[in-house]
C-alpha cells in the first residue's frame, strides 16, 4: 500500500510553507516519511527554500561492521536548504543537504545515505547585445564538498565554465575542473574489516588490498547547440575524465572485471578452487573515461517532430590498460500532434552493451492540465545478446517481455477559502 498526503499554505504573494508525508507498506517492509518544506523570498532577487524530513522504517538493514543483515527499526533524518540570488548580470547559489545512515524514502529515490554536501556557485555575464556576433557570455565558478557523518571526505570539486551565445542561435559551453573522489569499503560496497562479526571474527573486507581508495580526477567537456531554422536543430557533446573510477563491478557478459586484484584471484581460483571466494572482493581503480554524444531534432511539418540521439561512452583502466566497459546507445523519438489535445508518440532505444532494444508506442489525450488518458505498448527485445534471466547467449531476436497499459486521470478543481 502507498499513501501520500500534502498540505501547503501560501503566506503572502511569494512565500509558502507545507507538510507532506508518505507511507509504503509491504509485508515485513514498512517505510514512513514526513517533514516540512517552505519557500521564502525576502526580496525580488533572493529566494530561500528548505526541507526537513524524518523517516521511520522496519526492514532489513545491512551492517558492514557485522557483515550481516538485521531486520530492525531504523530512524533517519534528511535536510536541504538553499539560497539563490539573481541579478541581470550576476548572481550566486548556495546549498547544503544531507541524509543520515538509516534514512530511507521508498516512495521516492535516494542516491546516497550517510552523506552531507555543501555547494556554492558564482555566476557573471556580459550585457546582452542581440545585434553583435557574441550576444552574451556567462561565466560560472563553483565548488562542492561532500563528507559523511564521521567527517570523512567523500568527494570534492572545484570547477569553472563559460557559456557563450553567438549570433545565429549558436550556443557553446565549455567546462573544466578538478575533482577528488574517495572510496571506503564500508560505504555501500560491503563488509568493513575493522568490525566484528556475530561469530566474533573480523570480516574479510569488501576490497582487495587497501580498504580506502582515492583519485584526483581532472575533467573537461564541450557542448555545442545550434538552431538552424524552425525545422532543424542539432547538438554535440564531448567530455573526458582522467582517473575516473572503475568500481570493479564489471559489465557482463561482454566485459569482465579487469582489475589487477580480480585477475590475480582468477588465476589462483583456476589452480585452487578454495580461493574462489576472493573473487567476490572488489579492486576499484582509476581509468580514463570518454563520453561522446550528438543528435538532432527535425520538424518536417508542424504536427510532426522527430529526433535522433547517439551516445558513446567507455572507460579504460590505467593499471591494466583494459576496457572496463564500452557502450553505444541509439535513441529515436517521434511525435505527431493530431489536434491540440491528441497526440501519438513512438520511441526506440538500442544499447550495444546489452544488445538490447526497447520500444514504446503511446496514444495520449490531454484536454486540460491534470486530466489525461493514455494507451500504450512497450516491448523489450535482445538481438544476438544474452538472456537477462540465465545469462545464456541467444542468437537472433529474442523477446524479453511486452506490456500493454492504460492510464487515466481527472483533476477535480475546488477552491477552499
In N-to-C order, the SSE pattern is EEEEEEEEEEEEHEEEEEEE
Shape: globular
- Stretches where pLDDT falls below 50 for ≥5 residues? none
**Radius of gyration computed on alpha carbons:** 26 Å
Strand content: over 45%
The main pleated sheet reads as: 19 strands, antiparallel
**Would you tell me the structural class of the helices and strands?**
mainly beta
**What number is the mean pLDDT?**
94
- The count of strands amounts to 19
Q: Kindly report how far apart the N and C termini lie.
A: 32 Å
The DSSP helix count reads: 1
Task: Quickly describe the structure.
The protein has one helix at 260-271; strands spanning 2-11, 15-26, 29-43, 46-63, 68-86, 90-99, 115-125, 134-147, 153-166, 170-184, 212-227, 232-246, 285-298, 304-317, 323-337, 342-351, 356-368, 371-386, 393-409. The chain is mainly β and 417 residues long.
Amino acid at each position: 500500500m502507498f499513501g501520500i498526503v500534502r498540505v501547503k499554505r501560501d503566506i503572502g504573494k511569494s512565500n509558502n510553507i507545507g507538510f507532506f508525508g508518505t507511507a509504503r507498506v509491504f509485508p515485513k517492509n514498512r517505510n514512513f516519511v514526513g517533514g516540512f518544506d517552505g519557500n521564502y523570498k525576502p526580496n525580488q532577487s533572493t529566494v530561500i527554500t528548505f526541507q526537513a524530513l524524518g523517516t521511520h522504517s522496519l526492514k532489513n538493514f545491512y551492517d558492514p561492521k557485522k557483515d550481516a543483515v538485521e531486520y530492525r527499526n531504523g530512524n533517519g533524518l534528511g535536510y536541504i536548504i538553499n539560497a539563490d540570488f539573481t541579478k541581470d548580470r550576476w548572481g550566486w547559489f548556495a546549498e547544503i543537504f544531507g541524509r543520515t545512515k538509516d534514512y530511507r524514502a521508498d516512495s521516492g529515490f535516494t542516491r546516497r545515505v550517510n552523506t552531507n554536501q555543501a555547494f556554492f556557485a558564482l555566476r557573471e555575464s556580459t550585457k546582452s547585445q542581440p545585434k553583435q556576433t557574441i550576444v552574451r557570455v556567462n561565466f560560472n565558478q563553483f565548488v562542492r564538498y561532500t563528507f559523511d557523518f564521521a567527517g570523512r571526505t567523500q568527494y570534492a570539486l572545484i570547477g569553472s565554465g563559460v557559456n557563450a551565445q553567438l549570433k545565429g542561435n549558436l550556443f557553446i559551453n565549455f567546462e573544466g575542473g578538478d575533482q577528488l573522489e574517495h572510496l571506503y569499503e564500508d560505504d555501500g560496497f560491503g563488509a568493513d574489516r575493522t568490525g566484528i562479526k556475530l561469530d566474533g571474527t573480523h570480516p574479510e573486507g569488501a576490497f582487495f588490498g587497501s580498504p580506502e581508495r582515492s583519485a584526483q580526477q581532472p575533467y573537461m567537456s564541450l557542448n555545442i547547440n545550434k538552431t538552424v531554422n524552425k525545422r532543424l536543430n542539432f547538438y554535440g557533446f564531448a567530455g573526458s575524465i582522467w582517473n575516473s573510477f572503475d568500481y570493479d563491478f564489471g559489465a557482463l557478459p561482454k566485459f569482465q572485471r579487469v582489475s589487477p586484484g580480480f585477475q590475480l584471484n582468477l588465476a589462483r581460483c583456476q589452480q585452487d578452487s578454495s580461493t574462489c571466494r576472493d573473487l567476490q572482493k572488489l579492486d576499484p581503480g582509476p581509468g580514463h573515461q570518454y563520453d561522446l554524444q550528438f543528435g538532432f531534432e527535425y520538424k518536417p511539418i508542424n504536427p510532426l517532430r522527430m529526433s535522433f540521439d547517439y551516445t558513446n561512452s567507455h572507460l579504460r583502466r590505467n593499471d591494466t590498460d583494459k576496457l572496463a566497459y564500452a557502450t553505444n546507445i541509439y535513441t529515436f523519438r517521434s511525435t505527431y500532434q493530431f489536434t491540440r489535445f491528441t497526440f501519438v508518440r513512438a520511441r526506440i532505444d538500442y544499447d550495444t552493451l546489452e544488445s538490447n532494444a526497447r520500444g514504446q508506442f503511446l496514444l495520449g489525450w490531454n484536454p486540460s492540465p491534470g486530466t489525461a488518458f493514455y494507451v500504450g505498448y512497450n516491448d523489450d527485445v535482445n538481438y544476438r545478446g544474452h538472456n537477462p534471466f540465465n545469462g545464456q547467449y541467444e542468437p537472433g531476436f529474442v523477446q524479453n517481455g511486452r506490456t500493454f497499459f492504460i492510464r487515466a486521470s481527472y483533476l477535480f478543481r475546488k477552491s477552499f477559502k
